From TrEMBL, chain A:
GO molecular function: ATP binding; ATP hydrolysis activity
Keyword ATP-binding: yes
Protein name per Swiss-Prot or TrEMBL: ATP-binding cassette domain-containing protein
Keywords: ATP-binding, Nucleotide-binding, Transport
UniProt xrefs under SMART domains: AAA
ABC transporter domain span: 6-237
Family note: Belongs to the ABC transporter superfamily.
Listed InterPro entries: AAA+_ATPase, ABC_transporter-like_ATP-bd, ABC_transporter-like_CS, P-loop_NTPase
Automatic annotation (TrEMBL), chain B:
Membrane-traversing stretches: 20-38, 121-150, 162-188, 208-230, 237-255, 304-323
Superkingdom per UniProt: Bacteria
This protein's name: ABC transporter permease
Organism of origin: Kribbella sindirgiensis
Gene Ontology MF terms: ABC-type transporter activity
Keyword Transmembrane part of the UniProt annotation: yes
Keyword Transmembrane appears in the UniProt entry: yes
Keywords: Membrane, Transmembrane, Transmembrane helix
A cellular component annotation (GO) from this entry: plasma membrane
Amino acid sequence: MSDVAISTRGLRKTYRTLRGRKVVAVQGLDLEVPAGGVHGFLGPNGSGKTTSIRMLLGLVRADAGTMTVFDQPVPAKLPEVVGRIGAIVESPKFFPAFTGRKNLELLAEAIGAPRTRVGEVLEQTSLGERGNDRFRSYSLGMKQRLAIAATLLKEPDLLIFDEPTNGLDPAGIREIRETMRGLGEQGKTVLVSSHILAEVEQVADTVSIIGHGRLLASGTVAEVIGGGTAPTVKVAVDNHEAATRILTAAGMTVRADGNYLLVEGAPDPADVTRRLAHQELYVSELVPVRADLESVFLELTEGEGL
Amino acid sequence: MIRLTKVELRRLLARRLTAAGLVGLFLITILLLVATYFEARPLSAAEQLQAQQQYEMAHKDWVDHSAENLRLCEADWAKQPDPKPKLEEMCTYPEPRPEDFGKPPTIFAEIMPELLQGSSYFLAFAAFLIGASFFGAEFSSGAIGNWLTFEPRRLRVYGSKLLAAATGFVPIAAVVLASILLGTFVIVTRLGDSSNTTGKVWGDLTAIGGRAVLTTALAAALGCIVGLLLRHTAAAIGVVMAYLVLAEGVFAAFLEKAQPWLIKLNFDAFVRHDAQYYVTECKTGADGSYLCDYVQKTLSFEHGAWYLAIFTVVLVLLGGWVFHRRDVN
Ligand SMILES: Nc1ncnc2c1ncn2[C@@H]1O[C@H](COP(=O)(O)OP(=O)(O)OP(=O)(O)O)[C@@H](O)[C@H]1O
Ligand SMILES: [Mg+2]
């Protein structure tokens, strides 16, 4: 098995609206999802996340580009790899008048999974008794659980979750997060699209950020954050004027922030203390201001929204 | 494919609309048999007495006046311009018979083909409706997207749904038609006349029933396709209703010659083995008079069979092509 679970090259999709207008949903997306671990798939509303996922699953035809899943070209070889992919695209959709259990039984039979598996996955997702109620009567959280139960029928190696925490309460969100982390730790690949960046930052090993159907940044969370803004340090020092003069002379950017100075462009926080100490200015406090995924995301995707 | 078809069959049978449809078919079957019962029921004693009296009056009138009537008529005939109609055609006064009065007995071999044909209509309609919802609802609920993430081979998915709908309706149609056939036979044997039901009659009836089973299965599959094309059950039913009213109703009335190219007549021709239809034929005579005749024509079984076969193949291919290419959201 190669170390790439999903890769796309030059993926494009243009939708035609009812009035004949063309909407470019994905334009030349090059995506690479490493095998194993959780990969965050981030982008503003309408940036083409769902469309990309649909193309990977063969639900929507790509206009151009190539895709592979576990080294198999899709959609051509999708039948061969689909058994290894569990996916929830947007909100979970099942036969509304059937019970959760009936829905799972039909799916299990369609893929030739043993019927006993249905009870097991219902237990695993703590649906238990509610499995015997109609899908229509489920709350959003239960629908989400059922969808996860359905993906587990296949015992997949790759899980694709499109905004799985949409509309869930904090407990539900945490549960999904733990599920994803657990799957990632088992060595499975999880591709999760989301808007909630703090959320993704907590679980994702790697991320891709897209805007207007194009890749903007990709890598480990640390790389992406580091690659965005230069590290900033927050410094407490007595003489603001003198400190600003010294640091600016060293090529750094300095801004006042209340009782602190915000220093950007320092190759290393130690540089700041060293230069000030040389001039007998002593730093009483120094905090590196960590950029977070959110600020990087907002910076990268500025003006990329709908 | 076989496994998928089995799953789809299970889904078909688990649907509430299917259950409701089965209850509906059961009720219609009962209703038809009850109607046949009332139709075949002999007259009551009072009604029989009345018929007897009417016969006696008519007979007396015939005894008293027929000779005179005949004479008057013959005189009239002599005055007719040439070419004269035949004398027997114009002037016959047959003696009234008792069986001409009151109700003639119901004859099994005569009523049964009509009944089977009528049953084939409501079976086809129910199958179409259930088929349309079977596939259409998957699009309106979005469940098809999830289904395709389990089985992405679209043509298999498509084929399994059509096959399940069609095969699911074979036993249903067979049971309904057999109940109507045997129920009517029992009723007519007791109340009317089924004595001259020969082996050939049974053979013909079985053939009509068999073809009605086939059209029901086809209607279920075509319902699936229309449900797929329109993505909603209600839209599919609306289209069928519009077709029945506009094409089969209004259009066929204005353009009688188009009937052989509409579905209903071909359906009839297939199920009944030939079907009659009428067209108005007008021509200007030698003397300049404009005459219109209502002429009976026959549409052959072969025409109906080919028509239905081609219609089905075209729709199946169209549906497969659309489903194969469609973006599922
Ligand atoms: N069926 C469709 N017909 C026409 N346009 C569509 C269709 N589906 C999506 N689009 C358009 O394609 C673009 C990308 O949509 P997509 O759903 O992929 O975005 P997304 O990144 O998933 O957004 P969100 O975060 O809001 O879910 C949008 O402009 C959307 O309006
Ligand atoms: Mg989306």
